[in-house]
Amino acid sequence: MAADQPPSLGLGPLSRVRLDELLQEMLDRVGDVVASRERLRALLDAVVGISTDLDLRSTLQRIVEAACELAGARYGALGVVGPDRRLTDFITHGMTPEQAAHIGDLPHGRGVLGLLIQDPRPVRMPDITRHPQSYGFPPHHPPMHSFLGVPLRIREHVFGNLYLAEKRGAAEFTEDDEEVVVALAAAAGVAIENARLYAVSHRREQWLAAASEITAVLLSEVGRTGALSLIARRAREVSGAYLVLVLLYDADTDRLTVEVVDGDTSLSAGAELVASETAFLPAITGSGTVTVESLAKSAVWPGDVPSGPAMVAPLGSAEALHGVLVVAHDPAVTRHAGDDSTMLATFAGQAALALERARAQEERELLVVLEDRERIARDLHDVVIQRLFATGLQLQTAIPLAGRPEAGARINAAVDDLDSTIRDIRRAIFELRAPAAPALRADLGEMVDAATAPLGFRPRLDVFGPVDSAVPDRVRPDLLAVLREALSNVVKHASATRVEVGVRVAAGRLTLTVLDDGVGCPPDAARSGLVNLADRATSHGGTFDLSPAPAPHPSGTLLTWSIPI
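== Signal transduction histidine kinase ==
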């Protein structure tokens, strides 16, 4: 054997070839094992990575990035499936923000993307553009061919889908790619559930803290608008809403009045809506918290409101409904309304309690004022008027003792002054005993003042009886309309130099009289205005009369409008 010849192992040429193949196969398998080990390590790193933060949005973004890294995909996306089986959110990877902006609106889950929504099983294909359900790409969308889709499950619920496209260095994704992404999706479901539970827990903690703050405010002196403004502001902060509204409901007029506005809108407090023409009717009729898809389309708004979804919670107690609390979100922000609906209903209960407490506080303060006014009225009636009346009687008994006629005349004048003073005091007593609401007396006085300029003098106004408290609200507009028409007729036709207006409440009737010293009402005068006055009296079961001024007036007209109350 030559010195430079390798030692023989007793193998022939064919055996050596076979041995080389076995060694190469072993090396390939070792390589596969190493590659699988590296891929498994990468998968474990990805699982750990997606679980490092409990912020839901960040978690979804890390899932997409990890899936692209594991499968070698150039582009990736995670579509969140909504209750209507459409994509409500779309997180992308691989495209620049400028590219995403050029593409425009996010997909809704039609075409190939809808396959996973209709049938949540992994989908792998070499060319997405050749699939029968391919919907095509919008303008400015990068070209894509190879595709891998895997559903993301939370227990038995499909949260969303992972979409991967454009396998790097290969024509299509492999079975190994599919298996590793399926394994990542299983771990991702747990991470998403943890992030959602954390978000819900954190938001509920914020709701409870806000509710505690509102409770502390309600235990102190509270004003209705101030308490509702605080509730609206805290509801907007906690829910991340774009706009929060508090609308009060009036069942008699079927109106919703905007009481509080918190958010960026031209809508202002005091605006009114017809309740039956809004989408809030289920909340008003007792169906609990409802969700509307678009706040802008839910009613005819006298201002701009967002077009995004909104939750509407009733503000009410067991006895009555006060209104609704509306929490609206920006259409560009995806929210899961169900997470906040329970806490919003609790918060709406706080708002209803604020209304009840504010009303009770206002009634208590009003009662204190009325009790004090009643005491003053009682003292005026029982003490001052009686003394004046006694003084007048003493003066009248002194008239026969006065020897000179001038003395008797002066005593009679003093008695007349005392009678006038007693009438003024009685008027003050009625005003004291009237509710602390906008007074009808003030409206009558303003109307008489308005007639001063066209007449050239101020008519005399005499109000007797509990006008403010006894005249119903439904009668007040007709009373003021009749007085306005009567004064207008005096200005146009009477040429009067004196006008006396009397409004009297006594014996269950309201009576308005307008007496002037003018030329009287001609028989051929236009009667349309007078017919309207008679109709207003008839509608309340009353009477209307127009007659010449009684003696001792030499001329003029007396208008009498009287109704039962």
